[in-house]
């Protein structure tokens, strides 16, 4: 009989103590570290995005992403029933910054499409729902909030664009490593001598994980690590099944196709942590105090969508998407003597989004449409 502890570390220790074999899959550890209702990183009331947070998103750089997605939405509206509401559904909208930028840009660019759009936030965190409500106060008549459970349990959504920005990378992942004796799953145990969480390896027993290994045809280089985001693939397929024919899914995230993710130079996989804008590969430290993320396998994501009735319309870099949807039209003349003028800052933001390896080439845009 072990002593029950409190706090996030205690919750994880109790789960390990109750487990068969004294370990839990890394996927379970990551889920608790990020999504525990009280102590999880994403669920706590603390700033995560921007200068005072742990990482930046494209919406932190300026309103440009929102403007380009608004341009895309205006084009998409032309192929839909202009007499009916167009549902723009953002899943995991964080602090609401993108949503405000998107709706501001849409209202300015095409008031008729703006009046047609109902923005729906699918958000699990009460803290983020509150921030989004505050950020979108000026668009109150065009905004509604639902929980992920309501989305999955509800009926079919018609005339919808399902949008996410840096969401699939935030789902908990299984971690795999190839050894001479076969495939091993990385897990977490508790070391009482050092009072810390430690990595452990166990033979893969999870049938779904074994099917993933086979489907991906993972290379058998001894010591190479891989991430398997079964949760994000399951979510993507389930969400797609809620969409009526003609609806679109617009996904922006960092990642690659499987050929790049499985390449020989990625021996350590792609899992990283972010805390105070510092990256590390120490997910078992600072539990609940740092973001944990892994690159998206866009090949597997496309296939999950196709199995749910979607067809791939486009897959390209964020840079290509932004250029195609008018970011260069945002360049402005300005007085070069004032580098802090609004026009100068806007031009720098455009440059950062288009020339930064981090945001222009690593980030991808996947667009799929329901058949």
Distance between the termini: 55 Å
- Please tell me the overall pLDDT: 91
Cα gyration radius (Å): 21 Å
Structural class: alpha/beta
Number of strands: 16
Biggest beta-sheet profile: 8 strands, mixed
Strand content: 15-25%
Give the overall shape. Answer: globular
Q: Enumerate how many helices there are, as a single number.
A: 15
The residue fraction in helices comes out at 25-40%
- Oligomeric state, counting identical vs distinct chains: single chain
Unreliable runs, pLDDT <50, ≥5 residues? none
List keywords for this structure.
single chain, 371 residues, alpha/beta, eight-stranded mixed beta sheet, 16 strands
Characterize the structure shown.
The chain contains 15 helices and 16 strands. The chain is of the alpha/beta class. The model has no long low-confidence stretch (mean pLDDT 91).
Quick summary:
Helix content is 37%, strand content 24%. By secondary structure, the chain is an alpha/beta fold. Strand 11 and strand 12 (278-280) form a beta hairpin.
